[in-house]
Amino acid sequence: MNDEMFDELVESMKEALSISKGEAEPSRVFSYSPMNIKEIRERTGKSQKDFADMIGVSLGTLRNWEQGRRYPEGAALTLLKVVSADPVYVAKILHC
């Protein structure tokens, strides 16, 4: 690493520290709206148990998602996006 790159790295670390202490504002902020899992489930017409079985998660996990205590990740998030787009089709192909 050359001196110029090292200096940029040190400066970035100082900026990050200032932001984390509340002494500076970040240059940009990213936010997202979590999916409304309950709404997606209700559009399928399924109970919590049936929907959890359909997508292959435990009932407790589904309840945590619906109540906002946890958020789906990875493959579960992808499947929920597909279900959201066409709940009838997904139920049909999953034979539920």
Description of the molecule:
By secondary structure, the protein is mostly helical. The protein has 2 domains: 1-31; 37-93, 434 Repressor (Amino-terminal Domain), CATH 1.10.260.40. It has helices spanning 3-20, 37-44, 48-55, 59-66, 74-85, 87-93. Helix 3 crosses helix 4 (59-66) and helix 5 crosses helix 6 (87-93). The longest helix has 18 residues, at 3-20. It starts with a helix and ends with a helix.
Derived structural class: mainly alpha
Tally of discrete structural domains: 2
Radius of gyration: 21 Å
Uncertain residue ranges: none
What is the count of helical runs?
6
Average pLDDT for all residues: 91
For the record, what is the CATH homologous superfamily label of the largest domain? Answer: lambda repressor-like DNA-binding domains
Q: What is the CA-CA span between the terminal residues?
A: 57 Å
Tell me the series of helices and strands, N- to C-terminal.
Answer: HHHHHH
Biggest β-sheet description = none
Helix content: 55-70%
Global outline: elongated
How many distinct beta strands?
0
Strand content: under 5%
Q: What is the correct CATH architecture of the largest domain? A: Orthogonal Bundle
Give the CATH level 1 class of the largest domain: Mainly Alpha
CATH topology of the largest domain, what is it called?
434 Repressor (Amino-terminal Domain)
